[in-house]
Amino acid sequence: MRAAVRHSYGPPEVLEIRAIDRPNCGPDQVLVRVHATTVNRTDCAVLMAKPFIMRPMTGWIHPKRATTGTDFAGEVVAVGAEVDEFEIGDRVWGFHDEGLSSHAEYLVAGRRENVAKMPAGVSFDDAAASLEAAHYAANFVKRLQVHQGDRVLVNGASGAIGSAVVQLLKNKGVIVTAVCGTPNIPRVETLNPDEIIDYEREDFRETSTRFHAVLDAVGKSSFGRCRHLLLPRGVYISSELGWGCQNPLLALMTPCLRGKVVRFPLPTNIAASMQQISALLTEGKFAPLIDRQYPLEEIRDAFGYVLTGEKCGNVMLTFDAN
Ligand SMILES: NC(=O)c1ccc[n+]([C@@H]2O[C@H](COP(=O)([O-])OP(=O)(O)OC[C@H]3O[C@@H](n4cnc5c(N)ncnc54)[C@H](OP(=O)(O)O)[C@@H]3O)[C@@H](O)[C@H]2O)c1
Question: Which domains does the chain have, with CATH numbers?
Answer without folding.
Answer: 2-129+289-318 (3.90.180.10), 134-263 (3.40.50.720)
